[in-house]
Write a structure and sequence with these properties.
With about 325 residues, the protein is an all-alpha fold. Helices cover about 65% and strands about 0% of the residues. It has a two-stranded antiparallel ribbon. A hairpin with a 2-residue loop joins strand 1 and strand 2. The two termini are about 40 Å apart.
């Protein structure tokens, strides 16, 4: 499993690179994302990083492989065909998935055993019990879409807001891992569907509304996503996730003054938010406030022991001279 240190550096480097503009286009490192994909990728990266200093996935969506659902336990890659609308093969012959980070033989054996137990369960209640355990095991090997599928089965058996949110949260993590446009569309759609079910039962659930907003940013209706985030901030102006995501979205539209204000508001709420401090530095630099940018970069560096972050900060500071 990727460490927090590694994933933090990936998040910062990818998004910092995405902020360099030439001729109105995002200039991005080769092999990470294409200019035409920059908005979608930044939305996924925001989804992946939004919760790290105030919750969320730990890995940069533009750098990870897609979690592609249950495939034979002997598989060593993430390939495989899937028939269901959520990207999985959940037939009676389904077996344990090969995760992003390879599962051990013991983990694969347990997943296969649980899948057989799930398929053999005689009642919805029995299936839901096994599904809960399956989801926990899939989550442990970073197969978040598979975890989401089984948590959705739990929610279908007992449709409480909490159960729907557990399923939605798992798909949201999988969405942040999506490595192809097809996976972004597939997992983003499922994420939106399940968070909508949460909000049907709990209209005031700000966490669900924030994540739903970010899932909409990678859809054909990004305006709806912005509306959800604004609704969150109207209720809770100090909401870290919403402030962070609105800052990222302002960057996407080249509104650096607005982005600066969002990140300033964020670090005022939580001065120890590493990503907030780093992106405050990046956006201040874009507006020409070099002294303030340097201070924000140094603050970000002081909050983390990650050598990759330190190197990234030094690189950004060098650009200010």
């Amino acid at each position: 499993m990727a460490t927090t240190s590694r994933s933090t550096s990936h998040q910062l480097i990818v998004l910092a690179a995405a902020l360099a503009l030439v001729g109105g286009l995002f200039v991005l490192p080769k092999g990470i994302m294409k200019p035409k994909e920059s908005r979608s990728e930044l939305s996924k990266d925001a989804a992946a990083t939004a919760n790290r200093d105030g919750g969320g996935s730990k890995t940069n969506g533009s750098k990870t492989e897609a979690s592609s659902g249950p495939v034979p336990a002997t598989a060593t890659d993430n390939g495989g065909a899937h028939s269901d609308d959520d990207g999985h093969d959940h037939s009676a012959t389904g077996t344990a998935a090969a995760p992003h980070t390879a599962a051990t033989a013991a983990q694969r054996q347990e997943l296969n055993r649980l899948l057989k137990e799930y398929n053999a369960a005689a009642t919805p209640a029995a299936k839901a019990t096994v599904a809960t355990t399956l989801a926990r095991r899939y989550n442990g090997v970073e197969r978040f879409d598979s975890a989401g599928y089984y948590l959705e089965q739990v929610a279908l058996a007992k449709p409480t807001a909490a159960n729907w949110q557990q399923a939605a949260d798992a798909y949201y993590q999988a969405f942040s891992f999506a490595a192809t446009d097809e996976r972004v569309k597939l997992l983003g759609g499922k994420t939106r569907e399940l968070y909508a079910k949460v909000l049907e039962k709990e209209p005031g659930n700000l966490d669900a509304k924030t994540n739903l907003g970010m899932a909409y940013m990678a859809s054909d209706n990004p305006v709806q996503g912005i509306s959800y985030l604004r609704e969150v901030l109207e209720v809770d102006p100090r909401n870290e996730k919403a402030l962070y995501n609105m800052g990222i979205l302002a960057v996407q539209s080249n509104q650096y003054d607005k982005a600066v204000q969002r990140f300033k508001d964020l670090v005022k709420v939580n001065p120890k938010n590493v990503n907030g401090q780093f992106y405050l530095g990046v956006t201040l630099a874009r507006t020409g406030a070099k002294a303030e940018a340097k201070q924000a970069f140094l603050t970000a560096k002081s909050l983390s022991n990650d050598p990759a972050l330190a190197a990234s900060v030094e690189e950004e500071i060098a650009k200010l001279k």
